Amino acid sequence: MAKSESKVKTEVVAAVKRAKGYARRIEDQYSVGMPDCVFIMPNTVPCFTEVKIVRDNIYGPTDRQLIELQRIVQASTKVAAAVVGWKDGVYYIASPQSKIDIRYEFVLSDTDFPRLLERYLK
To answer: Does this model's pTM top 0.90?
Structure first.
């Protein structure tokens, strides 16, 4: 089932809110490279997140998005950054890097996004 990035973002924001977390889509057409969303699960650090559709087992941010995510991580140990992928009902999450292959062991996956986010942040 094909979905747009916008639909996936809407779904993950709603899921985090249902799980009693804080979720906000960041929509600013003038801030090139700004991550898509910010999430805070109970008892975790805030996580700036770029959401992508997985194509052929690969997903990743644009060059500019990667720079912004890396700058966020470097700025403080009290925030996190991640790149989230979605494919066929499964969410994937990994630290910011240019290309992420969902077949690698460092990529976490789950059909429940809030649970996946909490695993990533622990």
So the answer is: yes
